[in-house]
Design brief:
The complex is a heterotrimer of chains A (118), B (202) and C (102). By secondary structure, chain B is mainly alpha-helical. Helix content of chain B is 46%, strand content 11%. Chain C has one domain (28-101): Nitrile hydratase, beta subunit (Cyclin A, domain 1, Orthogonal Bundle). Chain C is 58% helix and 0% strand.
Chain lengths: 118, 202, 102
């Protein structure tokens, strides 16, 4: 295992460690598509919060291809896929308990989403 | 129930010291590297970096356009990059939209531009509430946004890190970038506040 | 996992109460704990997803009461032991040794 020494710190700090993955995964969705966040409830690591599961939103950005935390956290590999930013209305997420004017824009992996008829 | 000042277990200091000591003895870490990291993030990287990005965007329309298209590259032009800011997105406040950022799950934060996050950003009250009641959160910060404006909350659940580009205050025509940077607060780049106005610093 | 860390939209956590100013680190052990992350991560002992999941696996009450750097301490100590970089026994021995010196 490499040991991080003092002189390595400036370069490490400046470069970081991007979560972008190399790989040509094809996107399932495009900007403007209506999607539903899946309702899955794994006991293992995921970055799909409960508050968006089963809710319908719209793809607003395609960030490109990244490592998938659901697999990477358990030694199951990088499984590169597209990550999108998806917009959800306050009323869609919270029912009558939040303003439809306000929105949550959240980053979600391709596998977290399913198509919805337009 | 107060959440900011729960005392950690009495032996946490000892346990951290033991961990560092053991790892050093086994040759797995170099304590001088730790010292360098602490110095970097306590003294050298902080919200002043983000303020300079914002000030430049306010002064230079071409830079602003680059910032909104490829934030990582534009921010790196000013020398800011790296750990927890490898993939940046800048979101602009306008008359129609007020942006706020959060990481409900952990929390993540754009270190190269804002330094290390404040305790409130990392804690349960903010993380739980801002996605469901952003205007209630804003009023806790003494901030309010007109009813007609959309409040847009960005939950950085992946590795993208979001920075808010606040609106430039009135009465700052002809100001230098350094003067403009003095108006940009950390909270205005998270979205829980607005920048200072000229009257605040004169 | 459906852990308590998944806080979005939950109620009852009390006021945010942001102070006007606060130090970056409240205690010296927080400085050391923060700094330990980079060499532990850079040394290849774990990746960032394993790190986050280790925090999620904390006892729920410990998670909610604990501060940010306590979470980091839990995760890094847990992962280094699970990955075999150190053992529970040698860490406990070191803790006893330092306690004896106090």
């Amino acid at each position: 295992m490499p040991v991080v020494t003092k002189d390595m710190i400036p370069l490490i700090v400046k470069t970081g460690a991007s979560g972008r993955a190399h790989g040509d995964a094809a996107p399932s969705f495009q900007v403007g598509d209506k999607v539903r966040a899946k309702n899955f409830n794994p006991p293992t690591h995921t970055r799909l919060p409960r508050y968006v599961r089963g809710k319908v939103g719209t793809i607003v950005m395609d960030h490109g291809v990244f490592v998938t935390p659901d697999t990477a956290a358990h030694g199951l590999g990088e499984h590169p896929q597209h990550v999108y930013n998806v917009a959800f209305g306050g009323d869609e997420l919270w029912g009558g308990n939040a303003s439809p004017k306000d929105k949550v824009y959240i980053d979600l992996w391709d596998d977290y989403l399913e198509a919805v008829a337009p | 129930m107060s959440h900011d000042h729960t005392e950690p277990p009495a032996d946490i200091e000892l346990r951290v010291k033991a961990l560092e000591s053991l790892l050093t003895e086994k040759g797995l870490i170099d304590p001088a590297a730790l010292d360098e990291l602490v110095d970097t993030y306590e003294n050298r990287i902080g919200p002043r970096n983000g303020a300079m990005v914002v000030a430049k965007a306010w002064s230079d329309p071409d830079y602003k356009a680059r910032l909104l298209t490829d934030a990582t590259a534009a921010i790196a032009e000013l020398g800011f990059s790296g750990v927890q800011g490898e993939d940046m997105v800048v979101v602009e406040n306008t008359q129609d939209v007020h942006n706020m950022t959060v990481c409900t799950l952990c929390p993540c934060y754009p270190w190269p531009t804002l330094g290390l996050p404040p305790v409130w950003y990392k804690s349960a009250p903010y993380r739980s509430r801002v996605v469901i009641d952003p205007r209630g959160v804003l009023s806790e910060f003494g901030t309010s946004v007109p009813d007609e404006r959309e409040v847009r909350v960005w939950d950085s659940s992946a590795e993208l890190r979001y920075l808010v580009l606040p609106e430039r205050p009135d009465g700052t025509e002809g100001w230098s970038e350094a003067q403009l940077a003095d108006l940009v607060t950390r909270d205005s780049m998270i979205g829980t506040g607005f920048p200072k106005i000229p009257a605040d610093i004169q | 996992m459906n852990g308590v860390h998944d806080l979005g939209g939950t109620h009852g956590h009390g006021p945010i109460a942001p102070p006007a100013e606060e130090p970056i680190f409240a205690h010296d052990w927080e400085r050391r704990m923060f700094a330990l992350f980079v060499p532990a991560f850079g040394g290849g002992h774990f990746n960032v997803d394993e790190f986050r999941h280790a925090i999620e696996r904390m006892d729920p009450v410990h998670y909610l009461h604990g501060t940010y750097y306590e979470h980091w301490h839990h995760a890094i100590e847990t992962l280094l032991i699970e990955k075999g970089a150190i053992t529970r026994e040698e860490l406990d021995a070191k803790i006893r040794q330092l306690k004896g010196e106090q």
